[in-house]
Each structure stands twice: as C-alpha cells, then as structure tokens.
Amino acid sequence: MKEKIAVIGGGSWGTALAVVLNNNGYNVYLRDISEKRVKEINEEHVNSYLSGIELPKELIATTSLEEAVKGAKAVVVVVPSHIVRTVSKELKGLLDKDTVIVTASKGIEEESHLRMSEVIKEELDDKFSDKIVALSGPSHAEEVILNHPTTVVVANKNKELAQQVQNMFMSDSFRVYTNPDIIGVELGGAVKNIIAIAAGISDGLDFGDNALAALITRGITEIKRLGVAMGAESVTFSGLTGLGDLIVTCASEHSRNRRLGFKIGSGKSLEEALSEMEMVAEGVRTAKAVYNLSHKLDIEMPIVDQMYKILFENKDPKLVVSDLMLRGAKYEIESIAMEKEW
Ligand SMILES: NC(=O)c1ccc[n+]([C@@H]2O[C@H](COP(=O)([O-])OP(=O)(O)OC[C@H]3O[C@@H](n4cnc5c(N)ncnc54)[C@H](O)[C@@H]3O)[C@@H](O)[C@H]2O)c1
Ligand SMILES: O=P(O)(O)OC[C@H](O)CO
C-alpha cells in the first residue's frame, strides 16, 4: 500500500512538490483553504497558478486539514510564511507521533524574527521538536512541474532524518542534497527574496547587467553577514540555498519577488504592485523583519536598509542608487584585509 504524505498549501510550490511526491509513488493529499483551488485540482486536474499544466489524476485536494494529515508519514508545510504559525497551531493534536514535518516556506516571521522551522516548533508538541526539516533551494514551481532538472537541499542536524526526507523527494529531475546547517539553509532562502525585489527594481529602472551582478554579489555578502551572526555556517551561503537561490530569484522571469520589484522600478507604488500580484512575494514582509533584526543585531545590510526605505518609507528608487554608490569607501572582503593587517 502506498504511504500517505500531506502537503499543506496548494499554491504553485505546494502543487509542484505534491506532484514530485506523487511521481515518487506516494499517496498525496494536498490541503488548501481555497475551495476554488481544491475544486480545480480535483475536477479539472490543473492549478491555474501553473498555466493549466495537467496534474496527476491521483492527486487528492481537500480543504480539510484533518483529512489531509490523518495517518500521514510526513506533512509538508508550504503556505506563505505569515500563515505558517496559524497552520502549525491547527496541526497541533492532529499528527501521528512519528510524523516528519517538512517546511518549504521561505520567510522570517515579522514580529518574532523566527525562521519557519522555529515557528512550527513553538506551536507543536515537544515530541516534534527534532522532527522538522527545512527544504529550500533554487526551484521555481513553473519549472519543477515540467520536470526540468532542479536541485534543492534538505536540512536538519539529524543526518538520518535529513536522509529520510532526501529519499522521499529525490527523483531523476529533482535532486536533493542534505545539509546539517538548518539556520543557514532557511536564512539563505528567506533573505534572498529581499535582494530579488532589488534586482527587479534595478531592471525596472533599466540599469542593466552590471547592476544585477553587483546586487547578487553584494547581496550574498549581506546575507552571509546576518547568517553567521545568527549561528549559520558561512560556506552554506555559497551553496544552493545561498548563492544558487539568489541567482535564480534575481534573474528568473518566474520570480514573484523580482516581478514585484520590476513594477516598483517602473514607477508603481508598493500597494499598486501588490494589488497586481496573484501569488505571494515573500520579500516584502521579510524586508521588514530583516531590517529590524539587522538593526537589533547591529549587522550592516545596506541593500536591505534601502529596500526597507523604498517599500515602507516611499523613498524614490532612483535616489537609492547614489545613497548606495556613495557610501563610505570599503574593502571588498573585510576578512582578507584584517588577516593581512592591510
Ligand atoms: N512558487 C515557487 O516557485 C516557490 C518555490 C520555492 C519556495 N516557495 C515558497 O513557498 C511558499 C508558498 O509559495 P507559493 O508560491 O506556493 O504561494 P502561492 O501564493 O502560489 O499559494 C499560496 C497558497 O496557500 C493557500 N493557503 C493560504 N492559507 C492557507 C491555509 N491556512 N491552509 C492551506 N492553504 C492555505 C492559498 O490558498 C494559496 O493556494 C512561500 O513561502 C514561497 O516563498 C515558492
Ligand atoms: O518566485 P519567488 O521570487 O517567490 O521565488 C521562488 C523560489 O524561492 C525560488 O527558489
């Protein structure tokens, strides 16, 4: 008999992950709060967020959380990050004691500044504390659903647990690595969304490729600085969930965060840009969380600072450029200068 897995959140990413799991031989239940989405998946076998691509007929969508998770060997949480706490509260008491929880949402909670695995851990019973695995990496749903080659990472300090989740998702088009550094994996996937909005703004202003490369390389420097201060391994940010995810989100036509930035760079206000977005652009809320967190920890994040000002203080994106370019002169890589007493 097929083992059951529940995916919570039937948006573009939840649906793509559900299809990966279905193709790997699991009995997949996809829970979404939207009756319209559940109906189109069950009756038309499509998700309108994914350009009408045909979904496997075996995929079962439901609005009932209880029906989705009952008896499931694993529960994959893929709702927008600001909804993860609500879903986790609802999951409490519904899970079998051996259930593994996978978080595939990318964000930092606005008020608490917690990562998604920490939010889930706070809400579930203690017996699940060590059973939460993060899945992240450069992976647009629009390409995963077409079986285009994709690589991701699953992270938990328990190697066997990470490998269990690796085996669950691994396929010939979806390659899964493991990493014990869950802090780095989650932070890389969340903070890159802010830089992707900046990349979209830059493209909206028609600044070209030099500016994009600058945002990617200086962006990863900022992400790493914050990550290391929060206990992550520096080298994780050179991997799939750091540089890899930053590149894809800053450059891809599929990126929701880049798309939102492009609208703002083309002269729209945040409200106008958001009203034109169907799917979630996580970088907006994450910008607020990371701006406050970096100031609390005294971590220098100039791109994040300027993004906060554009998004929440109505600063003109054109004025941001000179403020970034004319900051005090710096070393490129401070650790080299220090090491060489330069
Ligand atoms: N889209 C991608 O390619 C992609 C890739 C990797 C990671 N992610 C991350 O995955 C998360 C989800 O993104 P998405 O693009 O799928 O979002 P989306 O906007 O496409 O869909 C979100 C879905 O969540 C549903 N939802 C809302 N509240 C719910 C609840 N309480 N229970 C169940 N479902 C609920 C909505 O009805 C909607 O269908 C985000 O954190 C995003 O950063 C997305
Ligand atoms: O489309 P975005 O900008 O939400 O990014 C989606 C994924 O995080 C890409 O890996």
TrEMBL record:
It comes from the Bacteria. It is found in: Cytoplasm. NAD(+) binds at G9, G10, G11, S12, W13, G14, A141, R256. Sn-glycerol 3-phosphate binds at K106, G137, S139, K192, D245, S255, R256, N257. GO terms for biological process: carbohydrate metabolic process; glycerol-3-phosphate biosynthetic process; glycerol-3-phosphate catabolic process; glycerophospholipid metabolic process; phospholipid biosynthetic process. It is an enzyme of class 1 (oxidoreductase). Its EC number is 1.1.1.94. Residues 4-161 form the Glycerol-3-phosphate dehydrogenase NAD-dependent N-terminal domain. Substrate binds at K106, R256, N257. Gene3D superfamilies: N-(1-d-carboxylethyl)-l-norvaline Dehydrogenase, domain 2, NAD(P)-binding Rossmann-like Domain. Keywords: Cytoplasm, Lipid biosynthesis, Lipid metabolism, NAD, NADP, Nucleotide-binding, Oxidoreductase, Phospholipid biosynthesis, Phospholipid metabolism. NADPH binds at S12, W13, Y49, K106, A141, R256, V280, E282. Residues 181-321 form the Glycerol-3-phosphate dehydrogenase NAD-dependent C-terminal domain. The active site is at K192. Pathway: Membrane lipid metabolism; glycerophospholipid metabolism. GO terms for cellular component: cytosol. GO terms for molecular function: glycerol-3-phosphate dehydrogenase (NAD+) activity; glycerol-3-phosphate dehydrogenase (NADP+) activity; NAD binding. It catalyses: sn-glycerol 3-phosphate + NAD(+) = dihydroxyacetone phosphate + NADH + H(+); sn-glycerol 3-phosphate + NADP(+) = dihydroxyacetone phosphate + NADPH + H(+). Belongs to the NAD-dependent glycerol-3-phosphate dehydrogenase family. Catalyzes the reduction of the glycolytic intermediate dihydroxyacetone phosphate (DHAP) to sn-glycerol 3-phosphate (G3P), the key precursor for phospholipid synthesis. PANTHER family: GLYCEROL-3-PHOSPHATE DEHYDROGENASE, GLYCEROL-3-PHOSPHATE DEHYDROGENASE [NAD(+)] 2, CHLOROPLASTIC. This is Glycerol-3-phosphate dehydrogenase [NAD(P)+]. It comes from Orenia marismortui.
